[in-house]
Specification:
Elements lengths: L3 E4 L2 E4 L2 E2 H8 L3 E5 H15 L8 E5 L6 H9 L3 E4 L2 H9 L7 E3 L6 H10 L3 E4 L2 H14 L3 E8 L21 E2 L3 H9 L4 E7 L10 H19 L6 E3 L18 H12 L5 E4 L3 H4 L3 E11 L6 E4 L8 H5 L5 E3 L6 E7 L8 E9 L6 E4 L20 E6 L2 E6 L4 H4 L9
Parallel strand pairs: 4-20, 5-6, 5-13, 6-7, 7-8, 8-9, 9-10, 9-11, 11-12, 12-13, 15-17
Antiparallel strand pairs: 1-2, 2-3, 4-14, 14-15, 14-19, 16-19, 17-18, 20-21
Cofactor: pyridoxal 5'-phosphate
Pathway: Amino-acid biosynthesis; L-lysine biosynthesis via DAP pathway; L-lysine from DL-2,6-diaminopimelate: step 1/1
Keywords: Amino-acid biosynthesis, Decarboxylase, Lyase, Lysine biosynthesis, Pyridoxal phosphate
């Protein structure tokens, strides 16, 4: 469920008509519903309640959408954060997320990032290699601190999602190979400055079936038993994220958070660990739309080209992952047409859909790309010297600009550099 609904023939975000935002801020603009993201956070928290030993930690994957206003909304309902850079760490701390609710993931943590986050505090480093263990050990010893760690294990399980968002097979860069896990934990035990407290895995994003997750979790449970047999005190199991979200009537429906939670409770029964979850898209995906305006409709060989003012630099997911985004007119007439939907960037990859049957629109009309709250604005850029997309947060009948549109002077760089 989201809070984007037609009222008197006009699409609203909560109680705010989208044309009002377009007129005030311009297009393209991301528009987020606070009520939707808060509801999704509560649904996820409720779904995993009672799983594991102690209160589960639901650590929102900040990479999905790291806008400060979004992070503050999620901090307000008690979520923690999964971060993958020191920049994300600073953002989530500024938003009010407590250190004891933060996990630091990622395959390429630097020594400087380790030092800052260890000094600032966090729940756990999710370590992805023996080499990283050694670096973190040296950083912790230099500070006279102890770094709590969980080792990320690659279970070699095919997630059944797009290849570019699959993260748990032997050919992916993430984690320590399952067969090397016992040896890696033996190394960690002997390194100073480390407290080995957990094990973690994450196999991919936008999973619609629970089967790959269940298979991966079963392997994780077996590993926990083997590690305890070797004398390791494993008290934390980070199950990652990846549960998919609905993308529209023409796309497969993913398993529900409730079904996911039931599976987790069943598979992890007897583990005696605190569980950590890293949802991102699940929380914010359907809480946002990309609001764009039609520039013109151009005749095509098979179907007309619907050219909008949003482009691949504003929403990269289609070009990167062949992602599907439902498209709707803000003022639908009831008529439909079939278009090739494209943006103005000078790349053939700047194509959002081919032969898409959708609301009939014309020049000047407003259109939304649905399910754009995750990996939309956070991946946007200034290619073709286009202005960075604005972002708006709606809360009931009020709205606020939460990221301004960067002007051309900010993009130009230094015309007369000072040479050194």
């Amino acid at each position: 469920m989201d809070h984007f609904d037609l009222r008197d023939g006009v699409l609203h975000c909560e109680d705010v008509p989208l044309p009002l935002i377009a007129d005030a801020v311009g297009t393209p603009t991301y528009v987020y519903s606070a009520a939707t993201m808060v509801r999704h956070a509560e649904v996820m928290t409720d779904a995993v309640a009672g799983a594991g030993n102690g209160e589960p930690l639901v650590a929102y994957a900040a990479k999905a959408n790291s806008n400060a206003a979004v992070l503050r909304q999620l901090a307000g309902v008690g979520l923690g954060a999964d971060v993958v850079s020191v920049g994300e760490y600073r953002r989530v701390r500024s938003a009010g997320i407590a250190p004891e609710k933060i996990v630091f993931s990622g395959v390429g943590k630097t020594e400087a990032e380790m030092a800052e986050t260890l000094a600032g505090g966090l729940f756990q480093f999710n370590v992805e290699s023996v080499e990283e263990l050694r670096m973190l050990s040296a950083v912790a010893a230099a500070q006279g601190r102890v770094a709590r760690v969980g080792l990320r294990i690659n279970p070699d399980v095919e997630a059944g999602t797009h290849a570019k968002i699959t993260t748990g097979t032997a050919d992916n860069k993430f984690g320590i190979a399952y067969q090397d896990a016992l040896a890696a934990y033996a190394v960690a035990r002997d390194l100073p400055g480390l407290k080995v407290q957990g094990v973690t895995m994450h196999i991919g994003s936008q999973l619609v079936s629970l089967d790959p997750l269940q298979a991966a979790f079963a392997k994780l449970g077996a590993l926990i038993g083997a590690l305890r047999g070797d004398g390791h005190a494993i008290g934390v199991a980070d199950l990652g994220g990846g549960l998919g979200v609905p993308h529209g009537d023409d796309q497969p429906d993913p398993a529900s958070p409730a079904a996911y939670g039931e599976m987790v409770r069943r598979v992890t029964a007897g583990w005696d660990t605190r569980l950590v979850f890293e949802p991102g898209r699940l929380i914010v995906g359907n809480a946002g739309v990309l609001l764009t305006r039609v520039i013109r409709v151009k005749p095509g060989a098979r179907h007309p080209w619907l050219i909008v003012d949003a482009a691949m630099n504003d929403l990269m997911r289609v070009a990167l992952y062949d992602a599907w985004h439902e498209m709707n007119a803000v003022r639908p007439s009831g008529a439909q047409a079939t278009y090739n939907v494209v943006g103005p960037v000078c790349e053939s990859g700047d194509t959002f859909a081919m032969a898409r049957t959708m609301d009939r629109v014309g020049a000047g009309d407003l259109v939304v790309f649905r399910t754009a709250g995750a990996y939309g604005a956070s991946m946007s850029n200034n290619y073709n010297s286009r202005l960075l997309t604005a972002e708006v947060l709606v809360d009931g009948g009020r709205w606020a600009l939460v990221r301004r549109r960067v002007d051309l002077d900010d993009l130009a760089g230094v015309a007369d550099p000072i040479w050194r």
